[in-house]
Amino acid sequence: MRARRSLRARLLVAMAAIAVGVLLVTGVTTIALARRSAERNAISHLEEQAPNVTNQLRGLARVVRSRRLRDQPGVGLGRLVTAVLRVTGGTLVTVHADGSITEGVSGLLGIAPGADGTVDRPARGVVNPLPADLTVTDFDAVRLRSGERQTGRLAHRVFVAEAVRTGGDDTPVLVLTEKVESAATTRARGYFVMGGALALVAAGVVSYFLARRLTRPLAAMSVTAGAIAGGDLSARVDLGPHPDDELADLARTMNAMAVQLEAARHLERSFLLSVSHDLRTPLTSIRGFADALTDGTIPATEEQRKAGAVISAEAGRLERLVADLLDLARLDARQFSLSPRAFDLAGSLRTTVDAFRPGAAELDIALEVQGPEVLTVTGDPERVAQIVANLVENALKYARSRIDVEVRAEPGAGVEIRVVDDGPGVDPDEVERVFERLFVSRAVPGRSVGTGLGLAIVGELTNAMGGHAAVERSASDGCAFVVRVPLVRVGTATA
Questions:
Q1: CATH for 29
Q2: Counting beta carbons within 10 angstroms of the beta carbon of residue 49, is it exposed (0 to 12), middle (13 to 18) or buried (19 or more)?
Q3: How many domains does the chain have?
Q4: Which residue positions in the chain have pLDDT lower than 70?
Q5: Is 459 a domain residue?
Q6: What is the rounded CA–CA span in Å between residue 450 and residue 356?
Q7: How far apart are CA 85 and CA 172, in angstroms?
Q8: How far apart are CA 88 and CA 46, in angstroms?
Q9: Strands (DSSP E) along 333-429, which ranges?
């Protein structure tokens, strides 16, 4: 569940981040384009206005010069020039032959600035000085003296500079400026923030439902896959209300796989049940004749009796294998039954262990039983004895010198059966697989004892009785197989 919440959270964060990123890019781009468009419009307006103002200034300058040549005062016309500049918001600068640039109308009127500042002051002085963010160093003297128009922008202002007259030592230049309107973009920021917040909320809502739509079928498939891995091949993915997208196709594929696995498991069970039943009759006959040869019922030589003993032993192993296969098939097919009744678990456990003492003595392994003398519980004595027998049989494969079998009652938890050996133990990577059928440890090879299906039967029987089987590391070398079964205790007598 934590992984599914994490996936949904990551989808929500990713989608919200994408929405915010798109909004930021769109907003910044929009504001930049609006500002750029305002600058272009302002420059275009100045470029349209500059020729008209330039022509007016040229005409006034010619009149002023002609009157001066006739020794007539041109003060009034000079004032008219300054009036034109004030009306248009323009400024006159003069580009000198040495490349320097000065402000004022003297270059246009062909007079030198007065030293005392008393004669024709408007005509000699500076009219409409350049804005504070625009200085004479921002102009290209070479381009302006050649008659080329210069445009540019500085901060929030654009300008157009165009020569009024060229060819002399001093080149008068008209400078028109206009402040770019930024209030619109400033006002748009508030709307952009509001729109961005609304869009973010909408994106969050859409992202939530989309993430939920994507993760719900994935979660359903995860649950179904876990159930199938746990052995429930009847589990199916619920397609939900959206059965026509790619996730639904994946769910249908998983359902088809589960159907095929269930059919294969059914065929396997049927095959095991059929073959096991068919093998039991000839095995019984083979073992019967082998026993007859061994005990002398049928006249035979010594060599024949030895061969009969070998045949009887191998037939017994085959019968045990067939019985184990039948038990597994019945457990899978739920065709087994439990017959609970009151019995002495401690006594049954000792009887089961005693059957293995001859084999343990041949391997020079000590078998010890610990627990109460009497432990009366309600359960199926045959199934419990089968669990103990399979655990002891497995311990005989790996034990070096000792096997301890312990039984005890746990208050409120039923009964615990523990089988401990002093063998090499179970590899940590294989702990989760020791109760799987057909699993054989490669890291720790053991003796050839039993059929190799005992632990799988232990796991299946324990689960069927509502218990739990596990393997633990023992206090010394080796491992401990622990089975906890919720058997109801009737009474107990401590030794």
A1: 3.30.450
A2: middle
A3: 3
A4: 1-8, 11-12, 64-65, 67-78, 110-127, 166-167, 181-192, 196, 239-245, 273, 276-277, 317, 328, 330-336, 437-452, 474-476, 491-495
A5: yes
A6: 12
A7: 13
A8: 10
A9: 341-344, 366-370, 374-379, 402-410, 414-421
